[in-house]
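Hello K.,

You asked for the raw outputs rather than the summary table, so here they are, unedited. I folded two proteins back to back in the same session to keep the settings identical. This is the first:
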Amino acid sequence: MPRISENVINEIRAQADIVDIIKEYIPLTPKGKNYFGVCPFHQDHSPSMSVSREKQMFKCFSCGAAGNVFKFVSDYENISFIEAVSKVASKVGIPLTITGDYKPKEKFQKEYDVMNLTTLFFQNNLNTSLGTKAKEYLSQRGLNEEMVKVFDIGLALDKNTLYQFLNKKKIAPEDMVSLGLVNQSGLTYHDVFVNRIIFPIHDPLGHVVGFTGRVYDGDYTPKYLNSKETAIFRKGNILFNYHRARDAIRLQKKVIIVEGNMDAIRMYVSGFQNTIALMGTSLTKEQVSLIEKLRVPVILMFDNDEAGKTATVKNGEILGDAGITVEVVRLSGAKDPDEYILANGIQAMKDNIEHPLSYLEFKYNALKENKNLEDTEELASYVKNVLASLENADDITIDITLNKLVQEFHLSYDVLKSQLKEKKIMPVRQSPVVAVSSQKKSKYDMCAEFILYYMMNDVKYVKMYQTKLGYFKSSIYRGIANEIVYYVEKNKKIELADFLSYAETSPLKDEIYRVIKSIKNPEIVETSMEDYIFNIKECTWEEEIKKLKVEMKQTSDIHEKENLAKKIVDFNKKIQEMLEERSVM
């Protein structure tokens, strides 16, 4: 497991001003003693995220997202905590030593090792005399040796060379099969990829998880062969070149999405390094989530055929429903971006990218195709489809679109508006909704969460918990409290920003963040801590009284009833004494 000492993490956190770091990702505006910005972790339309320089914490008052500088960078960039610490360290100029190998998913480390070994084997094949033809092919396609290295491109040979190599490396045949590297037929094994140029597929963290093999010599079919889905390779969770393009996307504030791996590679080597590729024809919710984390507009640049047009309409709608701004580039005179650049050059591609269509404009043009708009029925059908596409649009887009229809077809603005209003009553498609529990949080839970939050912020509240409460009936709250107490005993102090770095290794990490997200008003008042402790005790004793009353009803033993009644009196006495004590404070 990778390790960074707690002292080093705290030093990096102390040197990294959270306001300055977050400003590199989103605009922040000072307001009072804090800074505010549009939250990047939900579809925020007004600044609801507060960033405190004093506490070195961020908090969204809408979705509840919260944490220190490492948490923000980790969630924004969709990277691990260790990667976030490393990235922040480099921003503030602190040299960082990580002990141990990087193992973000320890249970798959064996699989990652096998895939890395396989990648090196394929790369080595390409650099032998047997790779001459494949290298010539790549050169003819405009991929020089430097770019071959950048994309880890290799070569699969014939005669089961991969199986023999891995076998010598003591890799079990069943592991080769489960990773989609070889097929089994009876008692024999055969390489999946034979006589193909190999393009490794990486997950968002940069691990090789699969391969695409392309024919380069002969008429083998299919032209492209992809790895089967495995424990580490799920096409729906991956976008080709995502890990490599992420920094360029952030710098250029735009992401280009193409259909094929070769299109993404061609775009990348041509200077458009903010390009990623689909792993299928339709975006999955996991892929949309990856794109959302980039927080930039999207340009869809799919193949110049009917299937590409259909895919553009479908994926543009999926992205639009997720609140992502979508633009479209439709290339002419070539099937795809790869062919277009080879035929027309880099400048022609640049001109296209600088003049994209809005998604709605593209969709309206697509709806017009193969329609005779002089025909009343076909025109009515077209207009209805345009109105249907506006169901989730903002008011400005609606107004612009309706005015265009009025000008182009001499229709009545009021009629179009009324038709649109009718459609909005019963929308054709619904935006995704987040299910919200109707169950109201109990008084006990609310007070327990506030107590834990206070404890994470100051040692004096830890001492108040220890002397005046000392115990939660809930094992989760009790576990979090124990983590806080342990941290204070070890460090003799506590700051929320530092405690959250420590919490990354805790099995209760998710519960700790849930508590922080639940606090809507983060202001800390000492007298409130007294109230929360009082309420916890009162709730605990009242619950005990209820249990005792149930037991009294269930027993017929007169002595048992007397004992239970005495316990009820004792608990009521405790509550009364506590109330009297509170009244004189």
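The second followed immediately with the same parameters:
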Amino acid sequence: MMGAIASKTCKECGQGFSISSEDLEFYEKLGAGEPNCCPSCRQQKRLAFRNERNLYKRKCDMCGKSIVTVYSPDKKFIVYCKDCWWGDKWDAENYGRDFDFSKPFFDQFADLVKVVPRLNLVNVNQENSDFTNYGYANKDCYLIYTSDENEKCYYGSYVWDSLGCLDCLYVLDSKYSYGCVDSVGLYECQYCRMSENCRNCKDCYDCKKCSNCFGCVGLRHKEYYFLNENLGEDEFKKRLQKILSDGELLKKCLTEYNSLIANFPKRATFQVNCQDCFGNYLKNSKNLYWCFDGRGAEDVKWGTNLSTNVHDCYDVDGCAFLEWSAEVISTGLSVNNVFASDHGWNGNFELFYSSYCTGTHDSFGCAGLRKKEFCILNKKYSKEEYEKLREKIVEHMKKTGEWGEFFPIKFSPFAYNETLAGHQYPLSKEDVLSRGWKWKDPDSRDYLPQNKEILACEKCKKNYKIIPQEAEYLQKWQLPVPRFCPDCRHDARDTMRMPRNLWQRKCDKCGVEIWAGYESGGKEKGRAPRATRSLSIVYCEKCYLESL
């Protein structure tokens, strides 16, 4: 993915960016225009079309039943429940219209999207898990997002194949664990990070195959360790019980634990079984460039949250089983040769500028189509008519400066602060409105005084409740009732991770030049916890492994 490089200026932020000869070859093969925006601005546009965590109640506009949806009641869209949207009582082709060469393409596409019915949530094979989004095969789950094949999990994001887990982030194949981040194979653990195959551990960092440990850092195959000290079973249990019943003592121990983390060498980036990858939090992948949070991907540039079998793609987020595509978000499942599209699944191919299309091919500027072909703005054409009109529209878009670009943020169905763009690229309300984008103020009904039934978040003041399953877990493990709402707890967990950025620095042991998720001097832009942000010690992979 290297080669001759040309410099360009981003038309959004004015910053310079580069495009290589390999990039140009990719866009030519895909049949797409080269980008005129830098990678960050391109991603910001895509993320503005994904609302993961903001759920609302309204009625299905077809059957009238109460539903949970990502579209607040004040949004003037037609929203269907999953049964109605996937049913055969409506056809998106009925919303088709002619293309008007006197108007920009994006304006016409936005007008189409406003009237085509929308799916309330992006869930598949869910059971008793109405308050979830971007989920697959979850059972008895509540407020989990972008999570698959879980049972009885609550308040989590990016949780997979887990049972009975609460308040977790990027956790896989774990059971009965709480407040854990970036961990695999945990059993009855609380507040563990970057840990693997641990059992009955509390507040542990970068530990593997440990059991019955508290406040430990960097241990392997250990048991009954307390702040990295071997106590033995009886003394460990006594010490643990003592601190759990004494808030001040627990606070002191956690301060020592954070000190251990601060002085423990960090690996520059987290990659497992990867080859020629430039990014972070990657597994079983090959030839990735500037990618974050991916597994099973190959030959991808500028991607995030990549799942199985994403290959030969540029600028993709939240995708799986996707190939030869660019500028797409929330797309996959046997999809290929798709450009500038959001939320498309199940066999789409040769699809440009689309939204919520499934099983559709050779179409352009369409929304909500299922198993269609040769459509433009949802209107059906013959193959010959389609190809001629498509060519004319591309030339029209080149003249208007639209060709090669993702949809403008102003056309997103969501307010900017409802989306992943608002999280990854935060802006003030004033900045958002000055750019012509939408903003959603909080609902005053979510902000009530605290009482026995309703709690008020100490940070954002929003109200929240403790569900029975949560109360049972907290009582069993002698954990305090959380003082913050689920969203603020999620934000706190997210700051424990390295940001989606890399900095060039030197290994603090051997001095070799490395790229790391920690900026030299510990300036990780406020996204790492305070205990690890101060002058982080960072090793290259070789030195890190030798230090264990």
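Confidence is low (pLDDT under 50) at residues 523-534.

Happy to rerun anything if the numbers look odd on your end.

Regards,
P.
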